[in-house]
Amino acid sequence: MAQQAQFEELARQLSAFGAVKRDLGRILPSDCPAGSAGVLTLLSRHGDMRMSKLAELLSVDMSVTSRHVTHVAERGWIERAPDPADKRSRILRLTPAGEAKVCELSRRSTELLAERLSDWSDDEVGQLIRLMTRLRASFGDCRTTHSRATPTGATAPVIETTTRTPA
Amino acid sequence: MAQQAQFEELARQLSAFGAVKRDLGRILPSDCPAGSAGVLTLLSRHGDMRMSKLAELLSVDMSVTSRHVTHVAERGWIERAPDPADKRSRILRLTPAGEAKVCELSRRSTELLAERLSDWSDDEVGQLIRLMTRLRASFGDCRTTHSRATPTGATAPVIETTTRTPA
DNA sequence: TATTGTTATACTCTATAACTATA
DNA sequence: TATAGTTATAGAGTATAACAATA
Predict the structure, then answer these.
(1) pLDDT (tens digit, 9 = 90+) per residue, B2-20?
(2) What's the whole-model pTM score?
(3) CATH number at residue A38
(4) Which residues of A touch B36 (CB under 8 A)?
């Protein structure tokens, strides 16, 4: 358990961290804002999925996800195929053009980070990634569904507060 | 120098980090959004300062700073005193009500972090703070003015790209 | 009746540019 | 002519709520 002064400092760092995100956003293609880039990157990493799953990975409301998805679909970077198992759902899938876009995005962000972090060691970058991942987990675990089947078939009784507008 | 796969992962973490910031933003008082909270916190930490200095600390354009400052001034949390040394400038100063607001903000964010990071060690939180600070520096150093006098009186010849709208 | 996804609306944050008043 | 600060405008991101289609 850390101390109060540390939490205040951490809150300050989180508040100021937007500047880094904005810098990273400035290198994006003009037709692919951050929201669209997030959609493409996650589809590339995790493969085809439904809207609800994507909204969960993005940690935003599904209404927001829907807009981002519409944007990238209009540009031909993804396809929305009907889900044979549930006619309400749609399966999102990267098109070849979308995959190309993902490569471009990856190249741009990697170049910027390689330039900015040229004096960072491999280990330091790894440490930061590890701690950021853990911080996200510490926040996300209290609202993301964790009702995944265990090896015994039991499910964790976690209250599910999805990324859904309360109806 | 880190590897390409690490940079891709770091870019993903940065992209997803907005969720943590949003969680932190949800605990703010309804009359004090994140922009206002940033102004108050920085004034509390660094003491009285001018608009331009505040904009630099916030890493946003001065036009943005001006709006946030107007918001907190209208609520009586800061005062804008004329600068005797330069009639164009104004000195920003926290009022007692502003100091009280800072305490409330600090209390709220500290409580949330203490709850979410209850299983983090003191050292881990310190590590995260250190690495986030360094990452911000690695990004900010290429646009913040560093023309500070050295012990010998010389100044670093760094191109100054301030937080100013190009006129 | 509950869930998946869409759309309309409103709010916050940001940058750009034009404007003022001083320097 | 240049700088400090303000304001107007536009764009992106998000949440809430109402809605349609399906389970």
Answers:
(1) 688 999 999 999 999 999 9
(2) 0.88
(3) 1.10.10.10
(4) none
